[in-house]
From TrEMBL:
SUPFAM superfamilies: Protein kinase-like (PK-like). This is Aminoglycoside phosphotransferase domain-containing protein. Residues 111-261 form the Aminoglycoside phosphotransferase domain. It comes from Massariosphaeria phaeospora. CDD domains: APH_ChoK_like.
């Protein structure tokens, strides 16, 4: 990407950040009239405004790591500014925005999600910006070693309950909450050699009939794709925030959430490295969650997954 994703947010002076080509974030003593949104943190007031001044391009080639707290390859980065996270992701036309997905989840469940402060698309730079209020607690990955077996089991059962609640929302198509293509690397065709590395890979939307035609030669059971269930699709330990008492304070990263074939709900934890925890039993969370999902009737099905991958990648 130009500039690279990790240079999407730059601190240009004390208490002021450029957020792509369109917005600025500032610490202010009084909220200005042109503030789009503002919030309080650590006794300070932060606001986001529309960027009106031309910015020298040299700004974007300097050190942009101030406040950078997460950087994933060429397509995602996160900054921590004023008790909020500024999440920047590669974007292309007609992609589902995570903020819209969070709004949908809040409308059909009581699953704790991060509060959306503001979001926008910087089409000039092919990336989306999402500002989220930070949740209190630590990730399950960080807390794992201090949790008892009973606490881990309770968390797994709670997360499986979240999945069961979301799965009650169904669709006749493989699609996002608002009818767009899904973003799930394991179920998506391989990228073309000509595609830039940052470009999001999407798949669909497809009806059950369309998918059945595609998968029939690989004997994927028809009953597995006659409808699709809503699923977070990335419930690894870094995306679950745990309070000091061991309860779940929130679930992060809803960008891949969509309507998937039912077999995927119980299978994903067993094949994704994103479900691993630290320590000698790296797959402890994956196995625990898969067992809790199975108790909810959301069993894994490796055969259907392998057949699916063979079909879409041949």
């Amino acid at each position: 990407m130009n500039p690279p994703i990790e240079q999407s947010v730059v601190c240009t002076e004390q208490d002021r950040w450029l957020l792509g080509t369109l917005k600025t974030c500032e610490i202010v003593s009084t909220v200005p009239n042109d503030a789009i949104v503002h919030w309080e943190a650590d006794g300070k007031t932060y606001c986001i405004r529309t960027s009106t001044a031309d910015v020298d391009e040299s700004v974007w080639t300097g050190d942009a790591k101030n406040n950078l707290c997460h950087f994933a390859g060429t397509s995602a980065a996160i900054w921590n500014i004023g008790g909020a996270f500024v999440k920047v992701k590669a974007w292309q036309k007609d992609m589902q925005l995570e903020s819209d997905t969070i709004e949908f989840v809040n409308s059909i469940s009581r699953i704790p999600t991060p509060e959306v402060i503001y979001c926008w698309v910087d089409a000039q730079w092919n990336r989306s910006f999402l500002v989220l209020k930070a949740l209190e607690g630590e990730t399950l990955y960080e807390a794992w070693g201090s949790l008892s077996d009973s606490q881990r089991t309770e968390i797994a059962n709670t997360v499986a309950g979240f999945c069961d609640t979301l799965a009650s929302s169904t669709s006749e198509r493989l699609e996002t909450a608002h009818g767009k293509a899904v973003q799930e690397p394991f179920l998506t065709p391989l990228a073309l050699a000509s595609d830039p590395s940052w470009k999001p890979r999407t798949f669909g939307p497809y009806s059950a009939t369309q998918l059945q035609s595609m998968l029939s030669q690989y004997s994927v059971p028809a009953g597995q794709i006659d409808s699709f269930s809503f699923y977070h699709a990335d419930l690894g330990p870094t995306n679950i925030i745990v309070s000091k008492d061991g309860s779940i304070a929130g679930v992060l990263d809803w960008e891949s959430a969509a309507y998937y074939p039912k077999f995927w709900l119980g299978t994903k934890p067993l094949i994704s490295a994103g479900f691993q925890v630290s320590g000698p039993e790296k797959k402890a969370w994956a196995y625990l969650l898969a067992r809790s999902l199975e108790n909810k009737g959301l069993s894994s099905d490796m055969g259907s997954f392998e057949a699916w991958q063979s079909a879409i990648r041949n």
